[in-house]
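Researcher: Re-running this chain for the archive, since the previous output was lost when a drive failed. Same request as before.
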Amino acid sequence: MTQTSRKFPYGSFISNYAQGLKLSNNAVTPDEQLDVAVGSILDSTGTFQLSLDTAVTIDVTNSGLNGLDTGTLAASKLYAVFLVSDPVTLQASGAMLSLSTTAPVMPFGYSAFALIGYAVSDATADLLLGYWTAGNGGTRQFTYDAPQVTSITAGAATSYTAVALTTLVPAVEDTRVSIAFDMTPAAASRIMSLQPFGAVGDAVSITSQVTAVHVTGNVEVGAKLNAAAPSIEYKWSAGGGDAVALNVAGYQFYI
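Model: Regenerated structure tokens:
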């Protein structure tokens, strides 16, 4: 079946603007290929309903349709994943990765696209393993196979200190981020707090019970943009010997 794009007449009602299009690491070559399941989504301009009737595989060793939009995969970068289509001559729809979240370099003859998710490369320029949800609607969840470290590995700040989540979380205001924490208190009843960057109140507070005993868990915190970098803030209630590691376990995104 041909994978096409359909234009909606002015004033028409569009329902289920996004369904399916589940992303997954390829079972055979997970560090180089990303699979895109069948589905449909409204394009970035709200003009065309893009359809993918046959699953495709994005191979990051290739450029163009079903590959990178341009160049080669860079290390430690967050890539946008796009469904791309040709609403004029109806060439088969496909998918691409791009460093741009708003303007991928389109293959010749293709003019419609829609963001369908994100993928992250590691320090060796391989795709990180993870799990993407799908369904009918634009709210999706991504979870890393293993939480990814931030710059805070033994944080002991006693006033709110910014933690940049660049390359691990989309640079979208108010992104809900799952933070995996491992706090080691220097004394009982020490409190480690988290909040969105620039917020006023404590969004999350965790209190230690026993001196030097690790407290671990996952919490959700909104990330705000700090000079275009998605960021949260953390602090301890007191100083001297406390330490916390903050890792990104996943995030919610919208398509």
